[in-house]
Design goal:
The chain has about 260 residues and is of the alpha/beta class. It has eleven helices and ten strands. It has helices spanning about 5, 15-20, 30-35, 55, 60-65, 65-80, 85-100, 110-115, 175-185, 205-210, 235-250, and strands at about 20-25, 100-105, 120-125, 125-135, 140, 160-165, 190, 215-220, 225, 230-235. The chain has a seven-stranded mixed beta sheet with strand order 3-2-1-7-8-10-9, with helices on both faces. The protein has a three-stranded antiparallel beta sheet with strand order 5-4-6, with helices on one face. Helix 9 runs parallel beside helix 10 (about 205-210).
Length: about 260
């Protein structure tokens, strides 16, 4: 017998997932928050309580005080180092394995989707675990520890910075191209844990709807709504996605995907 969570999946949505040929997904900070990573809007703590993230995540801030910005990102990297994927991340791995075509677009920079086992991932905002140089964008894996903060690029001597997209910077052109291709081709689009306030990602659900896709918007800020082809669910990815999987593929019940 299906459990209560499974029975609360809106009628028709599980069938749309089970029969989908191309599933495109957009994830935001909400799915990472379920693993314990604070969202960008959450108040900072400790030494960083007097700073706004928006004031530390810009090229101008780095030019003005590169040590401060580097040390803040070092603190953030340490904060995510021991975090593990949750049931929402793992459910997306299961979906990728079961549909013919799949692409996961994420606004998150923590690498948890890859840690969970997702393969077709496009990082719209980069990855906090990687670095590049400020002046020329050289991707750098290792560097000499010479006491410089931030360290210097071994290729050109430019200061190193996190390989993320800061306020005022453009998203990578190749990431935008892959997102546009996914929107043009998908028949099911899932927007998970994102407030849909930051462009251009914010327009993706509407673009998918306009092209004939079924769209699910799942976060804690929307009201529940069933108006096919648009579904809205106020909930958590770690709860709703495993239930949706079990509704679409009942043989998965009891597989442990919720743990």
């Amino acid at each position: 017998m299906p459990d209560l969570e499974t029975t609360l999946i809106p009628p028709g949505l599980a069938e749309r997932l089970r029969t989908a040929r191309y599933v495109a997904v957009l994830t935001g900070a909400g799915i990472s928050a379920e693993s314990g990573i604070p969202t960008f809007r959450d108040p900072q703590s400790g030494l960083w309580a007097n700073y706004r993230p928006e004031d530390l995540a810009t090229p101008a801030a780095f030019r003005a005080n590169p040590r401060l910005v580097w040390e803040w990102y070092a603190w953030r990297r340490a904060a995510v180092a021991g975090v593990v994927p949750n049931a929402g991340h793992r459910a997306l791995v299961e979906i990728e394995a079961r549909v013919p075509h799949f692409l996961l677009l994420t606004q998150n920079v923590d690498g948890l989707h890859q840690a969970a086992g997702s393969h077709a991932v496009v990082e719209l905002h980069g990855n906090i675990r990687r670095v590049k140089c400020f002046d020329r964008g050289h991707a750098v894996a290792t560097w000499a520890e010479a006491g410089d903060v931030p360290p210097l690029c071994p290729l050109c001597g430019s200061p190193l910075r996190p390989a993320v997209v800061w306020f005022g910077e453009s998203l990578p052109a190749d990431a935008l191209a892959r997102a546009a291709d996914a929107i043009a081709r998908c028949d099911l689009f899932l927007a998970l844990g994102t407030s849909l306030r930051v462009e251009p990602a914010a327009s993706l659900p509407a673009d998918a709807l306009a092209r004939g896709a079924t769209v699910l918007i799942l976060n804690r800020e929307v009201a529940d709504r069933v108006a096919p082809p648009l579904y809205q669910i106020n909930g958590l990815a770690g709860t709703v996605l495993p239930a949706l999987l079990e509704a679409a593929w009942p043989e998965m019940a009891g597989s442990g995907s919720r743990s």
